[in-house]
Amino acid sequence: MKHDGKVVIVTGAAQGLGLACAERFLSEGAKVFLVDILKEKLDEVVAKLGPKSVACVCDLSDISSVKAKDLVDQAVTVFGKVDVLVNNAGIIHLADFVDFPEEMFDRTQRINVKAAFLIGQAVARQMIKQGGGGSIVNMSSVNANLAIPNAVAYAVSKGAMKQLTAVMAVGLTPHGIRVNAVGPGTILTELVENSIMASETARRNVLARTPIGRCGQPSEVASVVSFLASDDASYIVGQTIYPDGGRSIVNYMVPVKD
């Protein structure tokens, strides 16, 4: 199997894209260390996924370099090493630019960017210590490039994630650690189904900018993450891949089926 014997850390793993990534890596032979703040959901997920998965409850809005190291040390204590990191945890808050709360801007950057930096740094140090390289996959978004006026902090954080990926890649490639990112379009996670897809107007607005004519599934993003973390992507470094149904390349509105 593609990831047989590997140990993977996935943040934001209790639901949505993180859970889909955890399931994909497990199906391909890996052991997975799942990180999230949602303890009850995380416990349910691990009980369902089985003995090759372990839960770690962590508030990434309050992460520090010490806590990041502790998180990685926990994974090493349980599984003996770390081969892959999926920096998936993230939040979004919607408000008009002039009304956007400063505290939510700061919180979004702490979780979406700073936590990814600190955990990535701690994982990289562990990989260097182990020898043999590894792979880090960061979760960006089409909104790294496309502006949404009422999602200012989220869009800024995903732009930062794209550049963080490039900087990490240049710094870590000499150690055999490949760093890339995934920038999904609109994916049918629980959050999207209960928000954007619950509004017919919002649904049509999204699909009018999505040439493939539908939203993506979490499993479709997980397959790209798995590919980037595998030896099949051995010559891909510092790139952001966009599983977005063509959204990031379209410059016109497309017909929407009722």
TrEMBL record:
The keyword Oxidoreductase applies. Transmembrane segments: none annotated. Keywords: Oxidoreductase. It comes from the Bacteria. This is SDR family oxidoreductase. The keyword Oxidoreductase applies. InterPro entries: NAD(P)-bd_dom_sf, Sc_DH/Rdtase_CS, SDR_fam. Belongs to the short-chain dehydrogenases/reductases (SDR) family.
